[in-house]
Amino acid sequence: MAAAGERSARELSPLVSAKALVKRFGEVEAVRGIDVEVFKGEAFGFLGPNGAGKSSAMRMVGCVSPRSDGDLRVLDMDPQIDGPSIRARLGVVPQEDNLDTELSIRQNLQVYGRYFGLSRAHVRAKATELMEFAQLTERADDEVDTLSGGMKRRLTIARSLVNDPDLLLLDEPTTGLDPQARHLLWDRLFRLKQLGVTLLITTHYMDEAEQLCDRLVIMDNGRIVAEGSPPELIASYSTREVLELRFAPGESGDVASTVDGLADRVEVLPDRVLLYTENGEAALSATHARGVQPLSCLVRRSTLEDVFLRLTGRTLVD
Where in the numbering of this chain does the ABC transporter domain appear (predicted)? Predict the structure, then answer.
């Protein structure tokens, strides 16, 4: 019985545990004392604008940037002591693709697999499996230079899986891709979730975080300002619906007093006014009754961007 209890405890221990984690670059504190736990089989996200500290946190977890202060354990090891052992069990998808452009898709996967000491027979079979997963089989012998941005991104993700990692780190995985390529990549990542792969994702796309993450933290200026599942965060910090009223630049500020009292909360942005309410259509009718004439109107459900705006007073794309 004791052995079973110990096994259960190990399964519940986090793959990543950070406590009061800090990263400084000279006098600049990029990560300012964050606490994070990531458990086996979950997709965990760092959501925030550029410069929030997401990538700095990811680089510390990936054992390529030493922490400045605090405690960090990855796969129950210390990155500053056991870096090579941890890296051997990680899959890493960097912000920028770093593929060998003069090699074919197949060769990129096979050569990368050899870095982990895997046999030639194993990497040949693994490359075939991963090309099928990434929907690249028909282009197997094409050089990387001939691929689209979306294909290169899928190849980078496939390459990160060559060593069957315990933890997959994805830093802004869909930045720069068109909507169709982004959705195809989301499908591949969702399949990995279904297979039980643990994902750690940084993103500044709210829809990406909502689609992929079981839990996430919202970061701003190096600090965590909220943590939870996407539905929990929206329920805690926003309303069920949002009415967006669009105006010409500079005109939205004049409307705030007119719509006062029509919603739980009103946010005034340079080009629009947001009314946070449980019933967007009712709020829209009420604004029309008060003579408000926006350029356009939209009733939508609340998103993580609304949560970020509530917590920080600005949007994710600022």
Answer: 16-246
Q: How confident is the model at residue 10 (pLDDT cuts 50, 70, 90)?
A: very low
The amino acid at 66: P
- Residue 254's alpha-carbon distances to 267, 271, 276, 280, 284, in angstroms, are 12, 12, 18, 21, 17
Are residue 187 and residue 46 in the same domain, yes or no?
Answer: yes
| Amino acid code (one letter) for 251 | E
What CA dihedral angle connects 135, 136, 138 and 140, to 10 degrees? -150
Question: Is residue 209 within 8 Å of residue 43, measured between CB atoms?
Answer: no
Distance CA 45, CA 60 (A): 15
Cα–Cα dist 115/101, whole Å: 18
Q: How confident is the model at residue 11 (pLDDT cuts 50, 70, 90)?
A: low
Query: Which of the pair, 10 or 208, is modelled with greater confidence?
Result: 208
Average pLDDT for 204-229: 94
159 and 39 within one domain: yes
Q: 71 with 51, same domain? A: yes
Q: How far apart are CA 61 and CA 21, in angstroms?
A: 11
Q: How many CA atoms lie within 13 A of 283 on its CB side?
A: 28
Q: Which is more confident, 3 or 212?
A: 212
The boundaries of the domain holding residue 265 are 239-301
- Are 81 and 215 members of one domain? yes
| Interval 258-271 mean pLDDT | 94
CA 183 distance to own-chain centroid? 14
- What CA–CA distance (Å, rounded) separates 110 from 112? 5
